[in-house]
Amino acid sequence: MIAASLSLTILGAALGLVLGIAGRFLAVEANARVAELESLLPGTNCGQCGFPGCSGAAAALAEGHAAPTCCPPGGRAVARALAEKLGVSLDLSGVDDEGPKLAVVAEDLCIGCCRCVKSCPTDAILGAPKQIHNVLREACTGCAACVEQCLTEAILIQPVPVSLPHWVMPRPAAA
Amino acid sequence: MGFMEKFFGLSWGIHPEDHKRPAADAAVRVMPTPERLYVSLAQHLGAPALPAVLVGQKVAKGDLLANPRGPVSAAIHAPTSGLVAAIGEIPAPHPSGLPVLAVTLEADGQDAWSEALAACADPFALPPDEISRRVAAAGVVGMGGATFPSALKLASSRKAKVTTLIVNGGECEPYLSCDDRLMRDEAGAIVDGIRLMLHASGAKEAIAGIEDNKPEAIAAMRQAAAVHGEVRVCPIPARYPLGSEKQLILVLTGKEIPAGRLPGDAGVVVHNVGTAKAVHEALRFGRPLVSRLLTVNGGAVRNPGNIVVPVGALVEDVLAFAGGCATEPARLIMGGPMMGLSLPHARVPVVKGASGILALAGAEAADHREEACIRCVSCVRACPMGLLPLEMARHVRGGDLEGAAKLGLRDCIACGCCAYVCPAHIPLVQYFAHAKGALAAEERARARAGAAKKLAQAKSERLAREAREKAELAARRKAEREAARAAEAASSARSAKSAAAAETAAEGTPA
Prior knowledge:
Chain A is mainly alpha-helical.
């Protein structure tokens, strides 16, 4: 028993040391530009752009494979920031930014399967097996990653309701 | 330009028709408590109050209805005795008409004060902390319209070592005369309140600035303040917006508060005369802020004047008590015509900060078509903050909010002077209100995105940790299993050996 644990421990420590040294010396240098672009993206890795997460999208943007308008949850604000960083002109006509969105669980349809809970990139869904789930409004980014997961189509993406302190006076109609 | 303006060097501001009389000269009327009161829980700057009563509970006048939530918030009390009929959403007195949480009180008609209120014969014997505590307990907020919790202002003045308390009796908004009326009728109470605030804030002297279009108020305040050397009454020229905090400080003390700083940094604090009266009531009689004097005025009002209204009364009830409307009002406003809030309808409640209810007739509320800016810079001359309204509006119209912010949009006090003087009728101040709201929304979105990023990172870290722990557990179990197997093999080998030995021994014995 002692011999077995000892040998495994030594093996683990030795391999860990080798890996640690390798990680330090053989590190792949991340493109600074990609990192900058990634910092502008929402960072929730929702995958709506079709790339593997926000880092994938940032890499594609840096190589010119993706348009600055590729991030649906980011909307116009992110598109504008990306275009500025990339130094390209921007065509916002294709971006349908309807303002911030929020996921809402339809309580009569939810069966409490917990699939959406696991899919949420920001842990904004609260739920236990066979209990109606709920969305924490403050943490939800409206990325819609949970919608696909729901077996009963109980998750709706709705615009964030306007409240009194967050009301913005409409811009006067131009003459 | 008159002598006073020359003397003070006031190049900014405007001088609109004040429409204060005859409402200012009419005696104060007291509105009887209506059957139902709708007490909003968001009557102050900061977080809405937290209800402290249950539906069906009986309350006396002055009982606590809601507790302050967070440091910037205020308590709310029952404006009459009766039954809590509901706690729910009602339309807010706000241009958006969005709902606000409110306590609905069914009045029992007795209007009986709570017996728990503690009167104080000599509040000057109390330590300053205790005064701020009692002012907070009475739910007193700035009565000039900004509704900043007064106790917080008193406490922070003490911290900032304020030396001068400025009492705002300017009331520069046209149509409004409630502060004027209050100073004429209750100068003694106001001066007592001012002295209490001096005691609480640690300031050495108080200057009451009153516009010179209120000679009766100036005389009454001078008489009341004559015996108290620390309170000085100082007439100021009647000019809008002299009742604004920074402008009043500039005219009375010559100190200009820099952008982004507070009056406390210059050793000054400003309180409204109505607030002084509320502080007096709170300390001398222990009475919380449950009613206020407000001006009902405007071309559509049949019988304009100043009325003591319980907080939570509906605007339509107040208008009906004032004699009703002669014509259908073209616009309803809570507050003054320059900075007040346009109301979507009259079924909204009166709040602590409501200094007036204006029902404007058609001609007073005429809408003009916006024309092109001719760059006459009338707005630049009128702006009391020294901004460039025409340039800021140009940026806002083009969607460049950051550009407008760089020109000082955040210093705009939304007084409306620029829009008032604009010959092209450009709604400049509305552009700025929109831009400030949109900038705040952008900031919120940024904060939200940052928080979401942190949450996403926390989740991926958690998943990685869970995977690692799982792998470690599996490795440990495997090691244990293998150790157990090895031990078993060893023991079985040992037993086999001993068995073999026994066998050989057994075999050997007969031989």
